[in-house]
């Protein structure tokens, strides 16, 4: 017997429904901006919003004045500088600025901030502890993280590297950039001296900010090292300024050049990007990803799990399917790092475990992301499900990483405001904090260096 499937519910194809047309004209400041101007990456960079005054000039008449006041105070208190591209501004639904997932990523509002978790530190991943030379982190045996610059096309409130990223002014940016190619030589020399390194992640900052000649310089320097077999250029750019791929021909040519040189030598060079929510992906994004696809550039995506941005099954599934639709492979969904000033953006380990269950099965397995906790304290990436013990009541997950830091335990803490009132009261007492942590680690059968 054949079983006839009923016609598909059109709602299940919503991921293909990309925003097109001149949608940016709904933003008062961009009402007169034609397509050619909006697609110009130089115009996008020059018109990025960096202050509450610029935000007000751009969207002022569409939002409630109390929102602007709230943002003003949010900008004042934020640990990260603010920089939002016109593209990102235009993808925000300004009729609901508090709920909008793109606003939540880039524009802080004071009224939503929560006190930091008592156990967070600024460099929660201890990237500096595993750094043999400036700008290089060597934590895993065969791969390194190379951070050649400190600037980004936008600044994310939740940045892992808020300890290093985002100087305050344009002039500071330039000074830092001018010095770096000299410093990069030390990183290349270190990589060349370590035969175990096969894989280099080039991040930042953001490689969107690298001049084409520096993409080529870094790419060719690394390709020349015989044991380097894999390279990834990492950028948030496609999510916040996809038009650069369409209009910055020199940059795209430089990237393509490194990919092609790599391919000729049997080496894998790909682009890693960072989409977090479905509304970041528009018709402009699809065109940009088509250009990369046609040039044979593989693009993978790493998302951060963020409260109110992608922490519900609908949006995470939609994001996964929409990325797949534009030929971007969903690779990782990270737990939010324990960094300063972002407690309102974090979620619990349980949220991630539940989401994975919903997403798996909705599309191809190779397009289904891994849900990861990059264990604070330098344990490295762990499958969220692989905790040795999870005290859900107090929000403490204990991980171990035998291949990275054998014999140690690593802790992730759920946001305190998501716990029951009794557990929240316990976290308010410092001596009870230590007790809860010791208990969880003991149950996991492990050791935490920091608590010894
Ligand atoms: C994430 C990361 C890498 C790359 O890890 P993959 O799991 O291969 O994506 C390399 N080094 C450091 C320090 C990292 O944080
Ligand atoms: S683009 Fe990446 S490095 Fe830059 S602020 Fe955002 S998360 Fe941090």
Can you give me a brief rundown of this structure?
By secondary structure, this protein is of the alpha/beta class. It has 16 helices and twelve strands. It folds into two domains: about 20-110, no CATH class; about 130-385, Aldolase class I (TIM Barrel).
What report would you give on this structure?
This protein is of the alpha/beta class and 452 residues long. It has two domains: 20-112, no CATH class; 128-384, Aldolase class I (TIM Barrel). Helix content is 36%, strand content 13%. The chain contains 16 helices and twelve strands. The chain has a nine-stranded mixed sheet with strand order 1-2-3-4-5-6-7-8-9. Helix 12 (283-294) links the parallel strand 5 and strand 6 (299-304). Helix 7 (170-193) packs parallel to helix 8 (212-223) and helix 13 (313-325) crosses helix 14. Residues 169-178 have low confidence and may be disordered. Bound molecules: pyridoxal-5'-phosphate and iron/sulfur cluster (SF4).
Topology of this structure?
Layout: H1 35-38, H2 41-46, H3 52-59, H4 65-77, H5 86-91, H6 101-106, E1 136-137, E2 143-146, H7 170-193, E3 199-202, H8 212-223, E4 230-235, H9 237-240, H10 243-247, H11 249-264, E5 268-273, H12 283-294, E6 299-304, H13 313-325, E7 328-334, H14 349-359, E8 370-375, E9 380-383, E10 389-391, E11 396-400, E12 409-413, H15 421-427, H16 430-444
């Amino acid at each position: 017997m054949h079983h006839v499937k009923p016609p598909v519910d059109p709602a299940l194809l919503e991921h293909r429904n990309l925003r097109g047309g001149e949608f940016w004209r709904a933003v008062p400041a961009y009402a007169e901006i034609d397509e050619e101007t909006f697609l110009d990456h130089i115009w996008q960079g020059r018109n990025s919003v960096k202050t509450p005054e610029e935000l007000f000039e751009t969207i002022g008449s569409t939002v409630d004045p109390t929102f602007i006041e709230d943002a003003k105070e949010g900008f004042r208190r934020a640990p990260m500088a603010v920089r939002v591209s016109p593209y990102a501004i235009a993808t925000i639904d300004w009729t609901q600025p508090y709920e909008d997932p793109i606003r939540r990523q880039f524009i802080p509002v004071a009224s939503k901030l929560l006190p930091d978790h008592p156990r967070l530190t600024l460099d929660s991943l201890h990237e500096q502890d595993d750094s043999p030379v400036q700008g290089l982190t060597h934590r895993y045996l065969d791969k390194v993280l190379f951070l050649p610059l400190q600037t980004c096309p936008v600044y994310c409130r939740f940045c892992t590297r808020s300890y290093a990223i985002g100087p305050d002014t344009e002039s500071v940016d330039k000074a830092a950039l001018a010095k770096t190619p000299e410093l990069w030589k030390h990183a290349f020399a270190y990589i060349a001296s370590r035969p175990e390194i096969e894989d280099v992640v080039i991040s930042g900052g953001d490689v969107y900010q690298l001049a084409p000649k520096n993409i080529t310089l870094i790419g060719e320097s690394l390709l020349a090292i015989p044991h380097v077999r894999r390279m990834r250029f990492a950028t948030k750019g496609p999510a916040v300024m996809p038009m650069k791929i369409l209009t910055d021909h020199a940059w795209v040519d430089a990237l393509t050049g490194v990919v092609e040189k790599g391919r000729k030598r049997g080496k894998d060079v790909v682009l890693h990007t960072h989409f977090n929510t479905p509304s970041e992906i528009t018709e402009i994004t699809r065109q940009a990803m088509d250009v990369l696809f046609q040039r044979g550039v593989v693009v993978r995506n790493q998302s951060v799990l963020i409260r109110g941005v992608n922490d519900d099954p609908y949006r995470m599934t939609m994001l996964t399917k929409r990325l797949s639709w534009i030929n971007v492979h969903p690779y990782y969904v990270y737990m939010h790092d324990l960094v300063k000033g972002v407690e309102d953006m974090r979620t619990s380990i349980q949220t991630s475990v539940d989401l994975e269950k919903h997403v798996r099965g909705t599309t191809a397995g190779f397009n289904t992301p891994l849900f990861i906790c990059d264990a604070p304290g330098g344990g490295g990436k762990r499958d969220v499900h692989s905790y040795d013990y999870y005290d859900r009541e107090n929000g403490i997950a204990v991980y171990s990483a035998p291949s990275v830091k054998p014999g140690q335990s690593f802790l992730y803490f759920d946001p305190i405001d998501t716990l029951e009132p009794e557990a929240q009261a316990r976290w308010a007492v410092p001596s009870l904090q230590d007790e809860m942590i010791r208990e969880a680690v003991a149950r996991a059968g492990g050791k935490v260096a920091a608590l010894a």
